[in-house]
Write a structure and sequence with these properties.
By secondary structure, this protein is an alpha+beta fold. It has helices at 68-79, 151-172, and strands spanning 10-12, 20-24, 27-40, 47-58, 86-91, 99-104, 109-116, 139-146, 175-176, 181-182, 191-194. Strands 1, 2, 3, 4, 5, 6, 7, 8 and 11 form a nine-stranded mixed β-sheet that branches. Strand 3 and strand 4 (47-58) form a beta hairpin. The relative contact order is 0.20.
Length: 196
């Protein structure tokens, strides 16, 4: 993985023509050369949808909006995006530390973009203090897949992503401060998208 935004503001995919990522004030903008079928758990336009832009909006560490979906929709409009065709994610992570990786296989191309905030690291399945549903602290991962994916294949990609994220957290030995166990599921929000 590389971190192209530590020294620059624009990244063009080396494998997928027309796919680019731009660091703008308060956001990362991922643009695609046409509308893609998407499957995500994003705060804005989550579920199955069609979109040609993903916006990862950096909110303050202590963001506590009571309606983050509305806040995101309003902010997207203010920036000039078409909210109905834009995936909106929230993060408090440093956008300059975003990581990008690309891979090409027999019948696909893949671009992965990740921003990670681990302050709210938690071990899934253990009893713990409940935090506000609106607190920012995320590992946002965007997987762009140029390939023929069925809905079930897209769902399976999300399962594999979740397993890979848990394995990475275990490898890093990132601890849940409340339980003193290895974190397996920090708060997360993400988006997987691919041709359908």
């Amino acid at each position: 993985m590389s971190q192209p935004f530590r020294q620059g503001q624009h990244y063009c995919s080396r494998l997928w023509d027309g796919v680019s990522i731009t660091l703008r004030e308060e956001r990362l903008e991922i643009g695609c050369p046409g509308k893609l079928r998407t499957l995500s758990n994003a705060i804005h336009t989550g579920g199955l949808a069609e979109a040609d832009v993903i916006v990862n909006w950096k909110v303050p560490l202590h963001y506590s909006g009571t309606d983050p979906a509305r806040d995101t929709s309003n902010q997207l409009r203010q920036w000039g995006y078409e909210p109905e065709h834009t995936i909106g994610l929230l993060t408090a992570a440093k956008l300059t530390h975003a990581s990008v990786a690309e891979l090409e296989g027999d019948c696909f191309k893949l671009l992965c973009l990740t921003t990670a905030g681990t302050r709210n690291a938690a071990r899934a399945g253990l009893p713990r203090e409940t935090f506000s549903a609106y607190s920012a602290g995320t590992i946002n991962t965007v997987l762009l897949v140029d390939g023929q994916m069925t809905d079930s294949a897209m769902t399976n990609a999300i399962i594999t992503y979740a397993e890979a994220k848990a394995a990475a957290l275990a490898d890093l030995r990132l601890m849940d401060p409340e339980t003193s166990r290895i974190a397996a599921n920090p708060n997360h929000d993400g988006c997987r998208r691919g041709w359908g």
